[in-house]
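Worked example 3. Consider a protein that binds MTE.
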Amino acid sequence: MVDFAVDGAYTALTGSRRARACETVTLMTTLSRRCFLERSVRAAAGLTIAGRAFDVLGDERVVGAVPLPFSKGTRLNDALFIGEHGEAVARVTGSGLGGRLAFDLSRLSPGGLIVGNREFFIRTRYPRLLDPDEPWRIRLRGFERPRRELSLHDLAPLVRPMGPHLIECSGNTSWRHFGLISTAEWSGAPLVQVLEQFGLPRRAKRVLVSGFDKHSRRRSSDSNAGASWVFTLEQLEAAGAFLATRMNGEPLPKDHGRPVRLVMPGWYGCTCIKWVDEIAIVEDDVRATGQMKEFAGRTHQEGTPRRARDYSPAEMDLAAMPVRVERWRVDGKTVCRIVGILWGGERTTDKLDIDIDGHGRAPVGDCEHHTNATWTLWTHTWRPKRPGRYRIAMQVGDPAIRTRRLDRGYYVRTVDVDLV
Ligand SMILES: Nc1nc2c(c(=O)[nH]1)N[C@H]1C(S)=C(S)[C@@H](COP(=O)(O)O)O[C@H]1N2
Ligand SMILES: [Mo]
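Given these inputs, the predicted complex is written out as structure tokens:
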């Protein structure tokens, strides 16, 4: 009974958010809700589930992907992240090159880890000069066969489900509450397969992928027109690059590249060219594109190399940040439940640490990291002793894992906590 009440309270407090989220974010399914209840009931009874003991009042745990909130407690309003005054989240601003939409990360829940098409972050909106009624053609350059272009019809037989993949803008900052990051389920055609099918020359090494990028205004305040990136065939193969035509079961929305975009799993969003209209086999010493140069700093290059071959892969390192700090009242005390994400990198870790206010690192309470393709939700229980402002920094305690952004404090967030 207690658990039912807890679940009820939890739903009541998050209900309105969820109702709003319903439209576009996949929410807890009936099945996972049922599991949630079952697990809550079993946990409350003090049972051991899957070999793990539950200290129900002291330490809330995640079972599988479903969180068990404090079994006897009331959820209060969340503590707010401060010092992130900038653009609003969850509201589209600007148009064309300056068009943006930040996803509201604080809404993530274990059952809602796929972002709907209308909420997925946007960096550059549909170019006004593009005519959606024109049949789409991808120009081919440098291919062996006399073929000059590809149509969507040519791609169709190669399109298949690609599963969930996360995209993060390399310029994802606190200015938009770090909301230039999202995950969707994609369908597309593996790029290397497309190249091979349509006459990839045997000696080909580098491939240029370009997207339509003519906007009525050539420059916006923080970006330049011209979207293209040069990859090696090995990079495309290793990352599992694909030409996406569908997102969350629907044709790509206009702002996300309709009718076709590149998804480069594990690489920053600036390589995920939208409105792909040209694929070219290029010389080994080809010059870097304007896009590569523009994003050199944000993709951790050394300086701004002039040749494409001098760019290192624009991969996202493993990173983590808090996305919500829930305040709960449990036994007359304030207990915080920090919910965060872990993403990027090439291998999973069981060594995620949290450092609150520089008081030293502690392992995160609950984090089961099974994939690098998409984000993982973690939670950490924290009992602040006094009200105040706290800096939350994440670290990975595995020297074999590169974490350039975490090392620099890029995703550190500060919260204001009131005690009750
Ligand atoms: N043609 C084109 N493709 C583009 C861009 C662009 O400006 N023009 N921006 C890139 C950047 S910087 C990012 S982060 C991703 C964002 O993809 P999204 O808007 O679908 O989230 O698209 C990439 N592809
Ligand atoms: Mo980006």
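Take a moment to read the result before moving on. Residues 192 and 237 are 6 Å apart (CA to CA). Residues 120-124, 167, 169, 211-213, 227, 256, 269-270, 272-275 surround MTE (ligand 1) (CB under 6 Å).
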